[in-house]
């Protein structure tokens, strides 16, 4: 069993969560040899100084990105700083429980290429979410399943809490935007096996949520970008053209059969069925 792991944690103005996060990780990973790589988007809230202080006691370091921003790109950059072959990705806000990390790592050691902390498998869930937030989350997953077919067997492709083998992203040309780095990896990474591990997404107790309308729009742009880069956009357009042409042929034959054929209005259903069969 490989117990050498790297944790890549993107941050922006999460100073109040850093110390409890590092402490809980230390307790959860007492049996592991690990490193924590904080990828900070130039928070200027004391995060950098705090992490440097904590590094005297814990295996944690910080990389401050002064010219770039964005959670997903911070994670991609973090892969380059991670030393180990098992890489954990999680948020700094403690909504991803550090105590679940060993279960995710275990799934990797048992053969999975990607282990996803999932809110939507049995045993998982979301604490304190409003009905609107649940609908938005489910809707985002539905969009992913609709436009990115290779994610359909994964119940929580939107999760930001997961573990990968380095080989999954080693040769991948990752160019994400927004927050959903897992989608990028699922679509462009080199993997065969995915396991979903249940966890309870808990309510943030410190700091402010980064979710806003811009992030929602960025998600839609990311979906479109992935469709372009993976060929799914062409496939979708072809599907629409074929389906649309079938509808046009069907309507045309239906009109001919009802207006010029021997079918009367009473026979409309028969005409529709016949034209549909001809179109097919």
Describe the structure.
- With 280 residues, the chain is α/β, with parallel strands linked by helices.
- The chain folds into 2 domains: 4-230, Spore Coat Polysaccharide Biosynthesis Protein SpsA, Chain A; 234-279, no CATH class.
- The protein contains 10 helices and 9 strands.
- The strands form 2 sheets. The protein has a 7-stranded mixed β-sheet with strand order 3-2-1-4-7-5-8. The chain has a two-stranded parallel ribbon with strand order 6-9.
- Helix 1 (15-28) links the parallel strand 1 and strand 2 (33-40).
- The radius of gyration is 24 Å and the shape is elongated.
- The model is unreliable at 273-279 (pLDDT under 50).
Helix content: 40-55%
The CATH class of the largest domain is: Alpha Beta
Number of domains: 2
Q: How much is the radius of gyration in Å? A: 24 Å
Overall shape:
elongated
CATH homologous superfamily assignment of the largest domain? Spore Coat Polysaccharide Biosynthesis Protein SpsA, Chain A
Strand composition percent: 15-25%
Summarize the main sheet.
7 strands, mixed
Per DSSP E runs of 2 or more residues, the count of β-strands stands at 9
The fold-level CATH name of the largest domain is Spore Coat Polysaccharide Biosynthesis Protein SpsA, Chain A
**Helix/strand/pairing category:** alpha/beta
DSSP summary: helix tally: 10
Order the strands across the largest sheet as they lie in space. Answer: 3-2-1-4-7-5-8
- Unreliable stretches, pLDDT < 50, 5 or more residues? 273-279
Mean pLDDT: 86
Shape-level CATH architecture of the largest domain:
Alpha-Beta Complex
How far is the first residue's CA from the last residue's CA? Answer: 55 Å
Helix-strand sequence: EHEHEHEHEEHEHHEEHHH
């Amino acid at each position: 069993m490989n117990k050498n792991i790297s944790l890549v944690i993107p941050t922006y103005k999460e100073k109040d969560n850093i110390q409890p996060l590092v402490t809980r990780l230390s307790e959860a990973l007492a049996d592991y040899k690990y490193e924590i790589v904080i990828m900070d988007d130039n928070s200027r809230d004391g995060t950098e100084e705090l992490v440097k202080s904590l590094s005297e006691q814990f295996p944690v370091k910080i990389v401050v990105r002064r010219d770039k921003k964005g959670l997903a790109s911070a994670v991609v950059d973090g892969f380059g700083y991670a030393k180990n072959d098992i890489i954990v990705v999680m948020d700094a806000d403690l909504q991803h429980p550090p105590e679940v990390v060993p279960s995710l790592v275990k799934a990797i050691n048992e053969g999975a290429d990607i282990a996803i902390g999932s809110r939507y498998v049995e045993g998982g869930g979301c604490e304190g979410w409003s009905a609107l937030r649940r609908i938005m989350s489910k809707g985002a997953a539905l969009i992913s399943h609709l436009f990115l077919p290779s994610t359909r067997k994964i119940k929580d492709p939107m999760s930001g809490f997961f573990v990968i083998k380095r080989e999954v992203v080693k040769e991948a040309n990752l160019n994400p935007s927004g927050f959903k780095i897992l989608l990028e990896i699922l679509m462009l990474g080199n993997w065969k096996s995915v396991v979903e591990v249940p966890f309870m997404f808990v309510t943030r107790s410190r700091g402010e949520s980064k979710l806003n309308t811009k992030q929602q729009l960025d998600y839609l742009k990311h979906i479109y970008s992935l469709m372009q880069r993976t060929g799914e956009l062409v496939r979708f357009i072809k599907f629409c053209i074929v389906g649309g042409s079938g509808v046009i042929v069907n309507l045309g034959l239906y009109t001919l059969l009802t207006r010029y054929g021997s079918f009367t209005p009473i026979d409309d259903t028969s005409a529709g069925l016949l034209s549909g069969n001809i179109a097919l």
